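Title: Comparing notes on inverse folding

I've been comparing how different people in this forum approach sequence design from structure. To keep things fair, I'm posting one structure and asking everyone to reply with a full sequence. Here's the target:
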C-alpha cells in the first residue's frame, strides 16, 4: 500500500507560469525493433506507446480504462484527492481548460480517498466532462512519480511524459497546454 498524505503547494503565484523545478520527465516512448521490411521513408501506422502508458485502471464508474489508448495523443492526467483544498481550487481551471482544448484528452486520476467521495468531488466541482480513474491503491500515482497533489502528467503525441507537481491555475495550465500541443 502506498501512503501519501500531503496536499501539494506551489511556491509560484496561483496563475504564474510553471516552475521548472516542479517538473520532471516520467518516461519516454520506447520503440519496437524495426522489421526487415521497414525503410526510413515508410511511415509508422501505430503510435509509439510509452512504457508509462502500459496500464489498466478502473474508472469511477467501474469500467476498465486502458492507458495505451492515450498513445499518439496529447493528453493530461490530473492527479487529485477528494479532500485536497488545492485540488478543489484547481478543479475549475482543469474543467475550463478541457472545454477550451477539445484536441487534448483529459483524464482525472483520483487517489487517497474512497470512491464515493471521489464521485462527490467530480459532481461538486463540475469536472465530470472527462473520465476519472479511481487509483485506490496508489499504483498510478507511483507509476508517474506523483507524491503530492495536485499534480499533472503531460503526455505528448510522441510519447514523452512530463510531470508537474503543484497548482497551475488558469494561466499556468494554458501555458502548459500550449506547449504540449505545439509539438
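Reply #1:
Here's my take.
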Amino acid at each position: 500500500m502506498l501512503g501519501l498524505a500531503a496536499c501539494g503547494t506551489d511556491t509560484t503565484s496561483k496563475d504564474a507560469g510553471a516552475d521548472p523545478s516542479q517538473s520532471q520527465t516520467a518516461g519516454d516512448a520506447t520503440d519496437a525493433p524495426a522489421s526487415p521490411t521497414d525503410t526510413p521513408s515508410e511511415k509508422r501506422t501505430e503510435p509509439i506507446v510509452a512504457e508509462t502508458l502500459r496500464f489498466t485502471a478502473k474508472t469511477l464508474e467501474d469500467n476498465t480504462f486502458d492507458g495505451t489508448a492515450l498513445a499518439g495523443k496529447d493528453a493530461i492526467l490530473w492527479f487529485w484527492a477528494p479532500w485536497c483544498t488545492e485540488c478543489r481550487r484547481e478543479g475549475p481551471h482543469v474543467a475550463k481548460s478541457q472545454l477550451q482544448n477539445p484536441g487534448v484528452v483529459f483524464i482525472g486520476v483520483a487517489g487517497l480517498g474512497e470512491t464515493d467521495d471521489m464521485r462527490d468531488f467530480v459532481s461538486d466541482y463540475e469536472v465530470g466532462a472527462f473520465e476519472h480513474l479511481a487509483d485506490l491503491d496508489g499504483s498510478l500515482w507511483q507509476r508517474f512519480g506523483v507524491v503530492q497533489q495536485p499534480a499533472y502528467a503531460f503526455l505528448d503525441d510522441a510519447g514523452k511524459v512530463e510531470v508537474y507537481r503543484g497548482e497551475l491555475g488558469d494561466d499556468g495550465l494554458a501555458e502548459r497546454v500550449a506547449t504540449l500541443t505545439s509539438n
